[in-house]
Write a structure and sequence with these properties.
Distance between the termini: 45 Å
Mean pLDDT: 89
Largest sheet: 2 strands, antiparallel
Number of strands: 6
Order of helices and strands: EEHEHEHHHHHHHHEEHHH
Low-confidence stretches: none
Strand content: 5-15%
Shape: globular
């Protein structure tokens, strides 16, 4: 790890292990007279940031995308030049602070990530089994996750050589499904004890997974000045490109949390196509679908859901099904 201290024309380059204790020992010297310490966001940011803040160091976690755009102006990209560029941004106040999540949100996010990982591996094995059997003219067809194993065994019962290959895969797949259910029960237990998650679940098509993912992603609702700022932070607003006579509106920016954006999109799609109970929110999205198409309506509804969820979380209110009862968002 590198650090740039002092004025830009008189910098010191230091290297040490990436541990909070090492940073505190070096940067805690009163002779440095540090005003701001820039820590670029990354996998170790929360760990390093927490340790440095607890030690009383004026640490600021800076946004990676913004810093990368600033450093691209350099001709030669080296670790030394990058450290110099970050020091320059901190000196002239051109940085953009990044929110460092709390330990609780980090643990909840780890649970969601582990659950998603195990589910994806189980689905991958199921698809591979289907592909192997297709080479022998055996088609499983549409079958539920619970009936998949029985269906596969019925297909290979007259082919012992093939069964000796598929059986170990079925064993691994079964273990992954059991692990996925274990993690899902842990997720439900967390949601059951969380008031904010239960309140968000009063919105149609918002289940425990979406609610927990939202609370762990937003972490602290007060960090947004207003609820409408949540949509751009999750990458659900169109990109704009204006230059001279050029003025283009593109697709959504897709910045921010990809998992949360996907879950909101799935919830919006479910609200439009599966939820039978009518509400002002569904009527609003259906009107957009008539004018602009279903796909754009789903994206608009996902963005509206993120705004409504933030407002409900901030106000402590529940979802209102009629327009007369609903608050302006």
């Amino acid at each position: 790890m590198q650090i740039q201290t002092g004025k830009i024309r008189r910098m010191t380059r230091l290297r040490w292990g990436i541990h909070p204790e090492d940073l505190i020992r070096i940067l805690g010297d009163p002779a440095l007279q540090l005003v701001r310490i820039g820590l670029e966001a990354g996998p170790l940011s929360r760990w390093l940031f927490s340790g440095m803040v607890e030690a009383g160091l004026p640490t600021i976690c800076i946004e990676t995308r913004h810093t990368k755009a600033f450093l691209k102006a350099q001709i030669n990209r080296t670790d030394r030049n990058d450290a110099r560029g970050i020091a320059q941004t901190m000196r002239v106040n051109l940085f953009r602070p990044a929110h460092v999540k709390t330990l609780t949100s980090q643990k909840r996010r780890a649970l969601l990530t582990a659950r998603k990982l195990v589910q994806e591996k189980a689905i991958t094995i199921e698809n591979d089994i289907r592909g192997m059997l297709r080479n022998f003219g055996l088609k499983a067809g549409v079958v539920s996750a619970a009936g998949f194993e029985v269906c596969i065994r019925e297909l290979i019962e007259d082919m012992p050589d093939l069964a000796s290959i598929i059986e170990p895969l079925l064993t691994v797949r079964k273990k992954l499904r059991e692990t996925s259910m274990t993690l899902h029960r842990q997720l439900l237990a967390v949601v059951r004890d969380d008031t904010a998650c239960r309140r968000l679940m009063t919105i149609p098509a918002v289940g425990p997974v979406v609610a927990l993912a939202y609370t762990s992603t937003i972490d602290v609702p007060a960090r947004f000045r207003n609820s409408k700022a949540v949509g751009p932070a999750l990458g659900l607003t169109p990109r704009l490109h204006q230059s001279g006579e050029s003025d283009r509106i593109g697709r959504i920016s897709r910045c921010g949390d990809a998992m949360m954006r996907t879950l909101l999109y799935e919830a919006a799609q479910s609200l439009l196509t599966r939820v039978q109970k009518w509400s002002w929110l569904k009527a609003w999205a259906m009107n957009i679908a008539k004018r602009r198409g279903l796909q754009r309506a789903v994206v608009a509804l996902a963005r509206r859901l993120s705004v409504i969820m933030h407002r409900m979380w901030s106000d402590g209110s529940e979802f209102r099904w009629t327009k007369d009862m609903a608050t302006a968002t």
